[in-house]
Design brief:
The strands form three sheets. A six-stranded antiparallel beta sheet has the order 3-8-4-5-6-7. The protein has five helices and ten strands. β6 and β7 form a beta hairpin. The chain is globular and about 35 Å long. The longest helix is centred in the C-terminal third of the chain and has 15 residues. Helix content is 25%, strand content 26%. The protein has 173 residues and is α+β, with helices and mostly antiparallel strands.
């Protein structure tokens, strides 16, 4: 989330896709994901059909929260980072500031992790450590997503930040 949040305070520009010179809501989301190699549609309406729908109660940082005519990136703790409007620019809002139309999980093969706080003993973002966590998650239908939930829960419980993408597609199931 640090990548997206570094643009807070930058301008809102209708139709824009520049994270520094100005973006609208969908341009902001599209450009953040593009940085990590994830291609999304250009409009907020089209983003409503991207990825997999999940309930708001199951949202994890990195999920896309869609509203009527607006979209943002879920940060956790009930907040979204988004291009708000021309007077507020890119900023943070409560995820429930308006009625949520859908929440979309578009990161199928990626996991959002971070350099966790020192209070999380033995945890490292090294691929080897993530693989160990991955192997320790009990077999279930959506094992990769279960791992994401486990890591997110542990990082957030200990006050860590979520700011990097790890590709899990190379991990064997």
């Amino acid at each position: 989330m640090d990548y997206a949040c570094q643009f807070i305070g930058n301008p809102y520009v209708w139709g824009g896709t520049s994270l520094t010179n100005g973006a609208d809501c969908s341009g902001f989301v599209q450009s953040v994901y593009k940085h990590f190699g994830v291609n999304l549609p250009r409009t907020s309406g089209a983003m409503r059909g991207s990825g997999k729908g999940v309930s708001y109660s199951d949202a994890i940082p990195g999920d896309i929260v869609c509203y009527s005519g607006h979209v943002g990136i879920y940060m956790g703790n009930g907040k979204i980072v988004n291009a708000i409007n021309s007077s507020k620019g890119i900023g943070v809002l409560s995820a429930t500031y308006a009625n949520i139309v859908t929440v979309r999980r578009v990161l199928k093969k990626y996991i959002l992790t971070a350099a966790p706080p020192a209070s999380l003993p033995g945890f490292s973002c090294a691929k080897k450590q993530i693989y160990k966590l991955y192997k320790s998650v009990k077999k279930c239908k959506n094992r990769k997503w279960r791992l994401i939930q486990v890591i997110h829960t542990e990082i957030l419980k200990k006050g860590g930040k979520i700011d990097a993408l790890w590709n899990l597609s190379t991990l064997s199931t």
